[in-house]
TrEMBL record, chains A, B:
CDD domains: AAT_like. One of its GO terms (molecular function) is transaminase activity. Belongs to the alliinase family. It holds the Pfam family Alliinase_C. Its cofactor is pyridoxal 5'-phosphate. Keywords: Aminotransferase, Pyridoxal phosphate, Transferase. Residues 2-58 form the Alliinase EGF-like domain. Residues 60-414 form the Alliinase C-terminal domain. This is EGF-like, alliinase.
Amino acid sequence: MSWSSGAAEEAEAIAAVSCSGHGRVYLDGMVDDENTEPVCECNSCYSGPDCSHFLTDCIADANGGDPLFLEPFWTQHAASSAVVVAGWHRMSYSYNNNGFISKELERLIRKLHAVVGNAVTQNRYIIFGAGSTQVINAAAYALSPDNSSSPAGIVASVPYYALYQQQEEYFNSAKFKFQGDPYTWRNKTDSGAYTIEFVTAPNNPDGRLNKALLQGPNVKTVYDRAYYWPHFTPITAQADEDLMVFTLSKLTGHAGSRFGWAVVKDETVFNKMTIHMQINSMGVSRDTQLRAFKLLKTALKGEGRELFDFASQTMKARWEKLSSIISLSKRFSLQKINPEYCIFYSKVREFSPAYAWVKCEREEDKDCYAVLQVAKITGRAGNAFGAEDRYVRLSLIRSQDDFDILIQRLNKLVSEENGAKII
Amino acid sequence: MSWSSGAAEEAEAIAAVSCSGHGRVYLDGMVDDENTEPVCECNSCYSGPDCSHFLTDCIADANGGDPLFLEPFWTQHAASSAVVVAGWHRMSYSYNNNGFISKELERLIRKLHAVVGNAVTQNRYIIFGAGSTQVINAAAYALSPDNSSSPAGIVASVPYYALYQQQEEYFNSAKFKFQGDPYTWRNKTDSGAYTIEFVTAPNNPDGRLNKALLQGPNVKTVYDRAYYWPHFTPITAQADEDLMVFTLSKLTGHAGSRFGWAVVKDETVFNKMTIHMQINSMGVSRDTQLRAFKLLKTALKGEGRELFDFASQTMKARWEKLSSIISLSKRFSLQKINPEYCIFYSKVREFSPAYAWVKCEREEDKDCYAVLQVAKITGRAGNAFGAEDRYVRLSLIRSQDDFDILIQRLNKLVSEENGAKII
């Protein structure tokens, strides 16, 4: 080794700091007061220079969808997933004078879908974006009519992922308007109106394999397939929708890398999305594409079994633990989804969704978020998904520390349900 | 070394392939038919498996602003600029539960501005985006009025960078409309209208240190400072505008990394831009931020002298070569900018702009782009900058190969100006 050895030493030294197993040191981490070395960044509920101090009274964070449950997989696959980025790596705007997309990464993505069997990619276009976040927005722009005096209506079934609505409202484009639930919309007489339906399958927050409600010549459908991986759901069929959105975040757990993609049938829609990516950010960072390439190469080892076995087993264990607690409760209930046949594992499987969609059953518990907050659990309130506040989403994909504390708090809450206190 | 050695070996093996000095192999490069190893990706005008074959008749590419002139600096600083990214590096959406921005990278950026003396950052906010592309769009949204029945007008002096107009037209927001040159706009009587002026200084395409034309209570100004580095211009003063936009692309040459930032005075504007980055892409890839961190650390060595000396000398040599050819011509002319005092180099210096803004002087040469195209030179036509097609922009920041071929073609064109042919 010559020029790479300094960087390798630096990375290995950083990785060797354990932070008591409740935190991590990063190369670009906060440094201490003497401005020398990066310090431990502790998981929530842990503190101290080595993250060994447990904050007993802290609040269990079950809010965001940070997919840290996959972090142990990557520490266990350190050698195959590391990547050395040279100072001169891909400085250009384009790949070999030809667009913003790594063809080798595209090839790996097609291979991955073939191995998992969750989506048809033959004769389909693939476009990259900065997470599904940017891809979803590109889809909304690309599917809106070019010359229309009235904007396209964007709809999503309640409960829905809030971003669809937030983006449409924020960008405030003359091209589209958010119009809520398609069920209401379907009863409107204005059937000639141009409509884009976002279908999240499995759904965020409740994990159901939603299907489109609307159809017709002026209806376009975007399938958000972020969670359509064996970790969270039986793979019931090879999806073959016109426009399917995926993200690295919920596949490998690399939310921070901001990498997502769409599989697109129609060339015109693909071309429009390409223009979107150009005008918005000139494509996805080449550094990110290199990293995604290395991660997916590792994920594909052994026909994907290592990654998906680890991820499925973790999610199954978490779901069972949570369900068994809630099953003891009359105050709270969980979504129920019947098992289905999974073509990836070739057997009937239970769902192990990314989120628990908890309902407060007591008449007086109208604000379920507040009920949980009193028990030192932070979820995400139902209204963030266009639903009643009698519902709360609890994230099950966060770090093991976050999940353990959530279970601890839930156990206590359910045990105390009938006035009894745990000693 | 343990887990990092495989990645290090792989990277060094790739880097050792020379591609005859006219191309490069990348880790995620196209592989050959046997699907084994990445192959050489050749510079334009070169081909063959090792890029040794010169395509004599090829067209000199002086169109895009690919800043490959800086690539040799990074190959010369291989050891300090390499970075090893571990598989588990920053998988989370946020930095230590606190936003989308690496505080250590922010600290480096402030230090860099202090060392160069090109911008005030004390008591200013810094926001990151996917290149200045995304930052510029965030600024347009953030500076538009929240509740206005009429959209903000966006203006930029001719000749201007086309992206301002493209973005406004593409996003088609109710919040703003592109309205062309502020000079025209200033004469309008509707002085109460809300206006955002984009000022590019140094200007793209002509390198001038533009100043804002409009002022008033309803005028907001965005200074695009992408080119305000010692490579391209004397640093005449520490810029202290309300909103200044910078990009890694024109500083270190890493266009492909998609990293830009803004220095912002007003907290409300900063908060709005933060929301933009969240809704658009949930911040900049953490992989990119890590790489930018490593690159800027290298750039700051020796108080920035190594990078800026290399870059300034390269640009100076290129500008002098180009000017000396055009000075022999009556058919073509170049922009002229008077030297100014540079506070970074503590002396009066000539400009060495990123682009030549070439004018075709002959009455009949109304389409200067076509004139150059006949001579096998591709520039960018004046109309792309809102200017006459009597002008063409020629990029001087591309690879040495591209520049050498451009000079060859220009030499021939100017030599033949009076009918004489070179033998």
